[in-house]
UniProtKB/TrEMBL annotation:
One of its GO terms (cellular component) is plasma membrane. Its main location: membrane. This is Flagellar FliJ protein. Belongs to the FliJ family. It is found in: Cell membrane. Keywords: Bacterial flagellum biogenesis, Bacterial flagellum protein export, Cell membrane, Cell projection, Chemotaxis, Cilium, Coiled coil, Flagellum, Membrane, Protein transport, Transport. Residues 70-132 form a coiled coil. GO terms for molecular function: cytoskeletal motor activity. GO terms for biological process: bacterial-type flagellum organization; bacterial-type flagellum-dependent cell motility; chemotaxis; protein transport. Transmembrane segments: none annotated. It is a peripheral membrane protein. Pfam families: FliJ.
């Protein structure tokens, strides 16, 4: 088996790994987007409640309960912000893994192309040697 054919096997393996990591990156990106959307929904919900509180005249008892609810909503927002941060870190790690996998695939592909070039040069030299030998034989056969 030629070196380039063996290298192609390695390129294929590297490409499969790159594809697998690429899928992971896409999933992590979706998770970040989903977590950001949840955060935005919580912030919109909190803002809506804050505006309604200002519009409604409440008794002190309802105002206290309302404030407790808003405080819990703010805690949920804070927790979701932490989740967004963790999701972004996971995405960044997956992206770095993909970049490494991509670099490996490109490197393997470059080595395979280099092997093909070397094989072609060797084949050209062999072909030239055969042609030279044929021409030499023909020359000596004609001169006999």
């Amino acid at each position: 088996m030629k070196k380039s054919a063996r290298m192609q096997v390695l390129v294929n393996l590297a490409q499969r790994e790159e594809d697998k990591v690429s899928e992971l990156v896409a999933n992590e990106r979706k998770k970040v987007d989903l977590d950001k959307q949840k955060l935005q929904d919580l912030k919109s919900y909190a803002e809506q409640y804050d505006q309604e509180r200002n519009l409604l005249g409440m008794s002190s008892h309802l105002a206290v309960n309302y404030q407790h609810f808003v405080d819990r909503l703010q805690q949920a927002i804070h927790q979701q912000e932490g989740q967004v941060s963790r999701s972004e870190q996971q995405y960044n790690m997956a992206m770095r893994r993909w970049q490494a996998a991509r670099a490996k695939t490109k490197g393997m592909d470059w080595l395979k192309d280099k092997s093909i070039g070397e094989e072609e040069r060797v084949e050209e030299k062999l072909e030239q040697a055969r042609n030279d030998e044929f021409a030499t034989r023909k020359f000596f056969d004609n001169n006999r």
